[in-house]
């Protein structure tokens, strides 16, 4: 399998410039760490970002307006 071509930051079209913070309690943090260890997740921020966006997109698809309800 060929290596993925990495484009320089100056040429990327979708830079992540907006920061969002969330805090977890002890049980939530343990659950997240346990999940990441079990499924060998290597990039925590990518995992959280992708999981969040998948949930948002699914919810938006379910809530789209329909002509015949």
Report on the structure:
The protein is an all-alpha fold and 69 residues long. The chain has a domain at 26-64. The chain is 46% helix and 0% strand. The chain is built from 2 helices and no strands. It is extended and about 45 Å long.
List keywords for this structure.
single chain
Q: How big is the Rg?
A: 17 Å
The biggest sheet amounts to: none
Separation of termini?
Answer: 48 Å
**Unreliable sequence segments:** none
Quick synopsis:
With 69 residues, the protein is mainly α. Helices cover 46% and strands 0% of the residues.
Protein topology:
Blueprint: H1 26-38, H2 44-62
């Amino acid at each position: 399998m060929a290596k993925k071509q990495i484009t320089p930051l100056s040429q990327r079209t979708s830079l992540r410039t907006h920061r969002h913070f969330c805090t977890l309690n002890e049980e939530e943090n343990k659950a997240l760490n346990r999940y990441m260890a079990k499924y060998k997740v290597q990039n925590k921020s990518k995992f959280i970002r992708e999981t969040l966006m998948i949930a948002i997109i699914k919810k938006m698809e379910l809530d789209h307006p329909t002509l015949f309800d």
